Amino acid sequence: MPMKPAKPCSYPGCPELTHERYCDRHEKEFNKKYDKTSRPFKYLYNSSRWQSSRKLFLQKHPLCEECMKEAFVTPATIVDHIEPHVGNLTLFWDETNWQALCKHHHDTKTAKKDGRWGKKNKVYSYDPRH
Fold it and tell me: How far are the Cα atoms of 33, 112, 115, 123 from residue 120, in angstroms, in the given order?
């Protein structure tokens, strides 16, 4: 099947032709900027403390809580913050604010609550002193 012709990179002023949105050079720059702005708390989830806490929580709560409400048995793979922490470290580490969910229920809940379905341009800010 023939390919579509290459088009100019979407980065302002870049003359490179590409089959994607950005050329290779600007794709990396865009992804780096996206990671910083869309996931400002990524460092918390990458910490060894979170990884071990998450693992222990899923061992104690192996089934998806939402699936159990619907009379299904599905393994939980994600530790979800019931109330979004938006940078509040006390809320982030509060285990009473955690629930075990399957990927489907986590993605649905996050999309409804955090923006993809209704609050598209909400920007979080946080005080790093917490």
Answer: 18, 10, 5, 9
Whether residue 120 lies inside any domain: the answer is: yes
Number of domains in the chain: 1
Calculated CA dihedral for residues 85, 89, 95, 99, nearest 10 degrees: 20
Residue 10 domain-assigned?
no
Of 85, 77, 73, 81, whose CA–CA distance to 55 is shortest? 77
Give the whole-angstrom CA distance, residue 69 versus residue 66: 5
2 domain-assigned: no
pTM across the whole model: 0.61
Range of the domain at 83: 24-130
Tell me the pLDDT tens digit for each residue of 2-38: 678 888 988 888 888 988 888 888 888 877 765 555 5
How many angstroms separate the CA atoms of 111 and 60, rounded?
26
Please state the separation of Cα 92 from the chain's center in Å.
14
